[in-house]
Amino acid sequence: MNKGVGLFSDIGKLAKEILYKDYSYDRKFSITTQAADGLIDTRVTLTDVLPSVKTIASINLPHMNSAKVEVQYFHEHATIVSTLSLRNPPIFDVSATYGTANTVFGVETAYDTSISNFTKYNAAISMTKPDFCTTLTLADKGDLLTASWVQYLDQVKATIAVEFTNRFSEDGNTLTVGGSYNFDESTLIKLKLNNQGNFGVLLQHEIRPKTLLTMAAEFDYNSIDTSPKVGVSLALRP
Prior knowledge:
The protein is mainly β.
């Protein structure tokens, strides 16, 4: 029932997946559940209780403070999501997006009842075309500016992503360029490079259905004497 313009959390998501997802420099074996860190994700989803409304109640056992209730409302040109974290004291989070299939504007804020103050307010805008997607996000109470561009060289195989970040409270900025290429349905390679001197490469292969072998490495080209970071992981996914 996901009608409308999508969620605020979807804005800029594709660029981050290309540039950062699965770049891990540890040696690990993991069994991935629906929740992070191997927790048990207990989730109840109710749809169509009201027109265009989805309600999700979830908890990551055994952490009882992770319980939350989320209500999503979808309209042709707008989406509103409100989340209540059932911790003590509770935190209320709300986000909204408005636009069309091509252009979306979104805002997000969070209110912490323990300090009676807003702890987060972010804004973003996104433009999507058949061959590219670009986003501009202002986060961390206006301190962090992020701009990204994703270009589809081939809708199935090749994608390029560029991300620029600037934190106004600090000197300097970061420019990251990367891409992904699907050799086939089972093999993916990704590369990325930033102006801080880091070059990363990732090779991921599905050795059997839902079993992923990932090898990643990062090199600091500003310090040739530094040993590269290397990681290997085997993940079993549900």
